[in-house]
């Protein structure tokens, strides 16, 4: 068998396991995010609230970026899971701090004030980038 095919045959299962694990961690992270937020962005998105979609997009990317770096830096599956959980927890903590500092954001998102949503999205992306850099070492 050709070396490239042997490499693919041996590496593909590991790749798929890491991708699926990371996507599961992303799903869990978004579930945790929905639980710690005082409003339900998905419900607001379903009724056409653009601001909620912007903030939720920030959450998706803010969680996915550090998870991608955790997958890249991990030494194995357990390492990926541990660092994935840490990145999700840090992002949730960052949201809670942001919510505390920017006290009226819940009402502003519910009222579909896009300016507030863009600030929240930027904070989520910035925190995600910082966490990703920390994970990458």
Automatic annotation (TrEMBL):
Chief location bin: membrane
Membrane topology, as annotated: Multi-pass membrane protein
GO CC terms: plasma membrane
Domain of life: Bacteria
Spans through the membrane: 12-33, 45-69, 81-102, 114-136
Keywords attached to this entry: Cell membrane, Membrane, Transmembrane, Transmembrane helix
Cell compartments where the protein resides: Cell membrane
Keyword Plastid in record: no
This protein's record includes keyword Transmembrane: yes
Family label: Belongs to the UPF0719 family.
UniProt-listed PANTHER family: UPF0719 INNER MEMBRANE PROTEIN YJFL (PTHR40043:SF1)
Name the UniProt record assigns to this protein: DUF350 domain-containing protein
Organism: Hwanghaeella grinnelliae
